[in-house]
């Protein structure tokens, strides 16, 4: 009997791929003489592959009419059920921790949130760190593919701002990839995007190695950058050997999380003659320029007299620390520059958590691995607001679409963007209230809620006056955060479309 991948359900294909990945930390553990950990991952990979093959054989030959909604359902089940499979070898390797803790870790990694229970990083051995990083990297790849295979055809994930079709409904005016058979969209997207994703990760890792980073840490940081998960084995880039040169290289690769137009035009979210006309990229550059400048200039506004902060070297370190950290949290990666402490001292802010949380809520580009509201939605609201102000000055003016990028914003795009923003704000309020009712103070509950819903997990360690110990949270709180991370990764409109009876009947 010949097995065909095209007839195997998407969730089974993802599980099969994760089974192969389990052999990588097994090999690293063997090389480091951690044989118990190696056996757990090796046995886990064998068991997962065996189960997937049995399922594939059992369903081979069955035929069912594929629907556009199947991909959205498969994506939802992959984010909620696949972490249980991914958690099993790590749970067995740790031996004494509750399964919920490891499941939480895998949900956080797969959704590229990077909120970890195991702080400091020395709590885990290298193979377990590698597994966390690989799951986060896999989650980033999954979202790249889902943009073309799921969100674009259903006008979700930010595409509702530019697409003609209504959110949650298949659009008839899509490109060849979206008009393809629903179950073949994944393979078409994979053929186009997997080589780019793997190649960029490899290139970044090589650059970091050249700058003096160890191969293991370089690989971890390369995967964390491309997936915007922020997962590190050494506590972040601020603790790495490559220093500021390494941060500069990572900064360049974070640009891929500001706009999908930097690496692909397969989904056609925004059409432009050149990259500079991309509204997401321009808005992202504006934020990265304005916020660090405001922090830098606050040094003189506050009239600080510390002579130690007046030298040019401290000024340059403060400027770079602010710029890198702002870019990192805008893309919801959550890396903290090694010069961030200098930037904080320079600006006189003890804990600028509100700024970092606001950056994470804005988020990166549509169809990238970044979370948050997304830059394209913010741009749509800006264009609408600018038009309304023109009407106030000239009530009878006929507004054209002469602004760069505005011609691709649909007529109701700003309305839908505002609806999403309100749903996002209500989600933050709901999760914050739920966590507060379980005994957390308001500040801690708000930071946890925003971290989960924006997929910017490192906020829990930097946004507040003191780091939040995730391991000290109760069972109910961890389950709420798991649901919030899933909700934040799929976004509110996708969840609403998922529970719509019309979607399940089509």
Question: Summary?
Answer:
The protein has helices spanning 10-21, 23-31, 35-59, 68-94, 99-110, 126-151, 176-179, 185-210, 215-227, 243-253, 279-301, 312-330, 340-347, 353-362, 375-393, 413-437, 442-453, 459-462, 475-490, 492-498, 501-505. With 506 residues, it is mainly alpha-helical.
Notes on the protein architecture:
The longest helix has 27 residues, at 68-94. The chain contains 21 helices and no strands. By secondary structure, it is mainly alpha-helical. Helix 2 (23-31) packs antiparallel against helix 6. The radius of gyration is 23 Å and the shape is globular.
List the helices and strands and how they pair.
Layout: H1 10-21, H2 23-31, H3 35-59, H4 68-94, H5 99-110, H6 126-151, H7 176-179, H8 185-210, H9 215-227, H10 243-253, H11 279-301, H12 312-330, H13 340-347, H14 353-362, H15 375-393, H16 413-437, H17 442-453, H18 459-462, H19 475-490, H20 492-498, H21 501-505
Helix pairs in contact: 1-3, 1-4, 2-3, 2-6, 3-4, 4-5, 4-6, 5-6, 5-19, 6-8, 6-9, 8-9, 8-10, 11-12, 11-13, 12-13, 15-16, 16-17, 16-19, 17-19
């Amino acid at each position: 009997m010949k097995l065909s991948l095209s007839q195997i359900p998407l969730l089974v294909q993802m599980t099969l791929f994760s089974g192969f990945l389990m052999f990588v930390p097994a090999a690293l553990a063997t090389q480091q003489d951690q044989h118990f950990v190696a056996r757990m991952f090796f046995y886990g990979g064998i068991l997962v592959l065996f189960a997937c093959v049995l399922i594939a054989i059992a369903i081979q030959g069955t035929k069912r009419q594929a629907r556009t909604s199947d991909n959205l359902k498969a994506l939802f089940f992959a984010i909620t059920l696949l972490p249980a499979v991914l958690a099993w070898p790590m749970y067995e390797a740790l031996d004494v921790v509750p399964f919920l803790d490891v499941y939480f870790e895998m949900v956080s990694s797969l959704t590229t949130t990077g909120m970890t229970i195991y702080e400091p990083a020395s709590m885990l051995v290298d193979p377990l760190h590698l597994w966390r990083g690989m799951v986060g990297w896999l989650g980033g790849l999954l979202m790249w593919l889902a943009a073309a295979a799921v969100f674009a055809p259903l006008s979700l994930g930010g595409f509702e701002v530019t697409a003609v079709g209504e959110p949650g409904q298949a659009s008839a005016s899509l490109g060849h990839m979206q008009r393809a058979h629903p179950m073949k969209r994944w393979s078409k997207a994979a053929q186009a995007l997997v080589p780019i994703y793997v190649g960029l990760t490899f290139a970044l890792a090589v650059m970091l190695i050249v700058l003096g980073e160890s191969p293991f840490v370089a690989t971890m940081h390369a995967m964390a950058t491309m997936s915007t998960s922020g997962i590190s084995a050494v506590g972040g880039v601020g603790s790495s050997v490559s220093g500021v040169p390494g941060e500069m290289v990572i900064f360049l690769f974070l640009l891929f999380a500001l706009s999908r137009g930097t690496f692909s035009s397969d989904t056609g979210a925004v059409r432009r003659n050149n990259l500079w006309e991309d509204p997401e990229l321009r808005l992202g550059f504006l934020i990265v320029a304005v916020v660090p400048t405001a922090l830098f200039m606050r040094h003189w506004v506050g009239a600080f007299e510390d002579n130690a902060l007046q030298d040019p070297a401290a000024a340059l370190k403060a400027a770079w620390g602010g710029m890198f950290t702002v870019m990192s949290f805008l893309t919801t990666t959550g890396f903290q520059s090694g010069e961030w402490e200098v930037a904080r001292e320079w600006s006189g802010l003890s804990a600028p958590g509100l700024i970092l949380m606001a950056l994470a809520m804005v988020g990166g580009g549509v169809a990238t691995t970044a979370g948050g509201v997304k830059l394209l939605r913010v741009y749509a609201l800006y264009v609408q607001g600018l038009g309304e102000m023109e009407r106030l000055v000239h009530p009878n003016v006929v507004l054209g679409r002469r602004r760069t990028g505005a011609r691709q914003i649909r007529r109701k795009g700003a309305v839908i963007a505002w609806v999403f923003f309100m749903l996002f704000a209500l989600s933050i309020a709901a999760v914050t209230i739920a966590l507060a009712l379980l005994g957390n103070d308001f500040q801690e509950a708000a930071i946890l809620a925003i971290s989960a819903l924006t997929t910017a997990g490192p906020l829990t360690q930097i946004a507040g006056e003191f780091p939040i110990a995730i391991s000290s949270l109760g069972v109910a709180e961890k389950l709420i955060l798991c649901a919030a991370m899933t909700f934040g990764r799929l976004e509110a409109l996708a969840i609403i479309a998922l529970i719509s009876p019309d979607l399940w009947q089509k």
